[in-house]
Amino acid sequence: MIKSAAQAAHPPSVRLHQVYKAFGGKTVVDDLSIDVAHGEIVALLGRTGAGKSTVLNLVLGTLTPDSGTVRVAGLDPNANFLGLRGKLAVSFQTDRLLPWRTAVENVELGLLILGRSKEEARATALSWLERVKLGDAADKYAHELSGGMRQRVSLARALAVDPEIVLLDESFSQLDHVTSRALRADFHRIAREFSKTCLLVTHRIEDALDMADRVLVLGAPARIQLELTLTDGQRRDEQLRARLHDEIAAALGGEEHPTDPG
Ligand SMILES: Nc1ncnc2c1ncn2[C@@H]1O[C@H](COP(=O)(O)OP(=O)(O)OP(=O)(O)O)[C@@H](O)[C@H]1O
């Protein structure tokens, strides 16, 4: 990968070095090393059971490696949970919105927890809802929003605290193809505009091809089987995309793997 000046000036935002993890004698992560540079978008693709969630939990610090090291913004995430507050944000497959709060109240919650004033939190939350094209829905409750809109609120909530690193855990997987494609495009635009470092975990090839600078295909146990890089110009080249799609599908094990035709 060619490094930008910003990337060259920063240490990797996320670093896994020779990480090994087993559950009950079964190896799930096997000698995995990944560096995600500042501002880079990396997709981890793998079949069910490949260990994607385990890798994500290691980055979140909710799991510790049996051996090897994990660093997030230079910190051990397991030992520095509070130190990473506000630096690391996650968006999950389900939106996890609080149903008794409106969209804007959901987005401002993280800001209030970080100690921002009510006025500042409200203004920041509203600006993020505008960026995800939900300015008109600020006062609606979750049950008044579609699945795609709820996921947009969830992304606004993750981004509003201005994290250095955003983790996406199958964030677009439950949405229909048209909705998820629009959301991926908007997320990609925002991530670029704000130079966010993103690690996205997905089983959908289209998620990776639409957003990632680098695609890592994991075999089981989690070990890199294929690594591809993709520029924004290349991702718009339909022929190249089709070829990369096939290459990734083959590495994932062909037709057993769910793909996204949309
Ligand atoms: N806490 C745990 N205790 C025991 N086994 C676990 C634990 N967490 C994960 N595993 C096992 O590790 C393997 C990898 O699971 P993981 O959830 O990381 O895979 P995944 O790629 O995220 O799969 P999916 O796409 O289905 O979520 C599976 O065999 C799973 O049963």
UniProtKB/TrEMBL annotation:
Domain annotation ABC transporter: ranges: 14-245
Molecular function GO terms recorded: ATP binding; ATP hydrolysis activity
Alphabetical keyword list: ATP-binding, Nucleotide-binding, Transport
The keyword Magnesium belongs to this UniProt entry's keyword annotation: no
PROSITE patterns the record matches: ABC_TRANSPORTER_1 (PS00211), ABC_TRANSPORTER_2 (PS50893)
Keyword Ubl conjugation among UniProt keywords: no
Similarity section: Belongs to the ABC transporter superfamily.
Record protein name field: ABC transporter ATP-binding protein
Source organism per UniProt: Xanthobacter tagetidis
